[in-house]
Amino acid sequence: MRIRVNGSWHSFVLEGDLSTATTLSYILREKLGYTGLKGSCDEGACGACTVIQDGKAILSCMALAVESDGHEVLTIEGLPADDPVVQAFAEQSEPGYGTAMQCGYCTPGFVMTSRALLNENPSPTLAEIKDALSGNICRCGCYAGIARAVQNASVKIMAKRSGA
User: Which of 74, 96, 106, 135 has its Cα between 20 and 30 A from that of 113?
Assistant: First the structure.
């Protein structure tokens, strides 16, 4: 089995602690050391394990590693520091909206979900943002700040595309 993670190919043999039932989350965290994604609920309920596979946000705790064989996977560690979504989450602290991250535990999942959304739709409405993020949970309740960060990232992306 071969998976391309953050631009590098990795090969795995299904033996020992790896089987056809091994999750992508386990491979990424335990075998490759990508601990930015969180193994929180392990049942697809929180979104903290979100990664991007072939351009789409997926819950790595619900994806079998064998299903990612031959595919491209992007984790939070694979995003550059100057990515508009990463920047917008780090900068978000507008009065009335609050921060986009308080404890930070859920942040990687929200960032990856937001990145996938903006890859597909660089100028989403607030309703589209809320819908895209509906599978992610923030226990600190930073939802307004998170949505505002996505809006700000969208503005940055659109400005860059228009050359502004």
Answer: 96
